[in-house]
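A common beginner's mistake is to predict each chain separately and then try to dock the pieces by hand. The better habit, illustrated here, is to supply every component at once so that their relative placement is modeled jointly.
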Amino acid sequence: MPLTFDLQHNDPQTSARAGVIHTDHGDIHTPIFMPVGTVGSVKGVQLRDLNDDINAEIILGNTYHLYLRPGTATLEAAGGLHKFNGFDRPMLTDSGGFQVFSLTGIRKLREEGCEFRSHIDGSKHFFSPERVMDIERSIGADIMMAFDECPPGTAPYDYARKSLQLTHNWLDRCINRFNETQPRYGYHQSLFPIVQGCTYRDLRIESAEFVASKNAEGNAIGGLAVGEPTDVMYEMIELVNGILPKDRPRYLMGVGTPANILEAISLGVDMFDCVMPTRNGRNAMLFTSEGTLNMRNSKWANDFSPIDPYGTSYVDQTYTRAYLHHLYKSQELLALQIGSIHNLAFYLWLVRQARAHIIAGDFRTWKEQMVPVLSRRL
Amino acid sequence: MPLTFDLQHNDPQTSARAGVIHTDHGDIHTPIFMPVGTVGSVKGVQLRDLNDDINAEIILGNTYHLYLRPGTATLEAAGGLHKFNGFDRPMLTDSGGFQVFSLTGIRKLREEGCEFRSHIDGSKHFFSPERVMDIERSIGADIMMAFDECPPGTAPYDYARKSLQLTHNWLDRCINRFNETQPRYGYHQSLFPIVQGCTYRDLRIESAEFVASKNAEGNAIGGLAVGEPTDVMYEMIELVNGILPKDRPRYLMGVGTPANILEAISLGVDMFDCVMPTRNGRNAMLFTSEGTLNMRNSKWANDFSPIDPYGTSYVDQTYTRAYLHHLYKSQELLALQIGSIHNLAFYLWLVRQARAHIIAGDFRTWKEQMVPVLSRRL
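With all components supplied together, the output reads:
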């Protein structure tokens, strides 16, 4: 069945919306945060914790990483990524563009596509829009992202304009290949195009209009949170969301802090992903409903209170700040696991709260109370 | 309440026994394997997995590590290790001797005790029998081990004889201090003495007799599995167990492979600990009921069968060999977690099976079938 989006509530005071995305692997309640499962595993998190404790409704896989390891032959033999990693809820794959274009010095970009060397063994590979569509078909995520060029955040106008043209050419080639091919595993796959254009208003408008004209089942905003000031990011989101169709989900790629997410929800974004909860979790930086904690700080050494008094996850109900501090100081694996689960559960709690407040009609008031609290350093 | 041991079944064909150790934190069904929780955390394992999936009945903490981090002040502030790490079943602490005597070059041994430098920050510390008893009181494990010298496995006879005298002198000092002090947290603590003597029969006999004369609530055999041939280890265990009281639990320290454990059970050992299941699990070496697997081997890349078809743990029912292989190859944290949980659950399954076969009366037959299977490389 095609991916569909029921827009259930529009916040009267902001552009925030609450909806449900229907996929062949189940429903996704928006706004939603998608934990990143780079190689098909959300780092440090057992599948049942992801399902039952974090309550992830959709996770993200990285095409670049999955293509290199385990490779499409293994993924096809398994019957797709869902069967391979055992996660039977919706999944989304990025296109590998972001990773490939981060491989500065070991990649060559041309109109046809991009040649690059594996970060693992230096072997040569070539990604074109067609190749990436084929790989994403092999992976079998419910939502496939178009292959785009991700220019650096600091790209000058001329570079950004040429890059955008390439991204748009590639989008047409992605759509053609996508339409010529079928899902491999018996369930529907969607293709989401990506709006680029750096921080140039005219390019963002042009890109949003081009993307909107494709009438895709959902649309994404890429190339933000790459170093530009936060208010510029918000300005770009607002501009693009004014153009993207209202009746399709909007996915803001790679963003961000809890405060970023609430602001972007208020600007009409429905879907988010970011490595921050897991990466920061591994690095002892925890997000809580009262602010952020650096768990390595010795002030927690004898604090026998829960990690987050309002924490919803198993780890919040099980471990104390003192114990977790000790685990980080002792470089115990368990610290990374606890931090990752806590942070992901917090992110999922936050978007559920946002959704509840949108439905209740007091989203703006709640958001304005929350943003300064979330950014506080405890 | 004092620690007591109900000896329930004696295998008629071997010296294997099945029993129950009663402690203030609950019962331990023997023979039992104790997962090692070095700094108060079993590496890579969440508390609920330890409780409900691995079914650990008792875990071990390392006095040396806990003394350095988090330190006795924090442990006392928490109300003891049980409250600190949240594990409310029985725990045992070693005496730190093994770790301190491994710090060759940064420790000085004399009759009074042993001065050493922390492996963390180089700070100077002094462990004496009295000091170690005080630390183990602060930690608050149900079973405290006596402070002993652990000579190298290759120690010549003269060194071994002197070392044993020191260990015996220290045992008397441990017992005195133990008897002069009270548990800090309202439940009983036991002190287990340790038989040493390297691989010298006369020293092992002398030590076993000396230890037996102390009438402790349980007794331990130390200084084995440190490089000697396996049959010499078994010879020493048999010799010592012929002398140690039959009505008290016997703990073989730091042993070993699944086959070692079954052989030692047949020689009358009741309790085991070893880092092997967790260390090997982190290193992609899995123990199964059909033999050992090196999960990095590319032969598993497309094997979509369970890790262990007879595996009892959640991870066996959730993940395939192909997926776990991929996680190890990709150096994912989750691989270490899955490997550790699987191996620990396997060790606990193995001792439960041993116990069931002792009770059923067919332990020897079962053990003789199992030992070659367990040692097979798949």
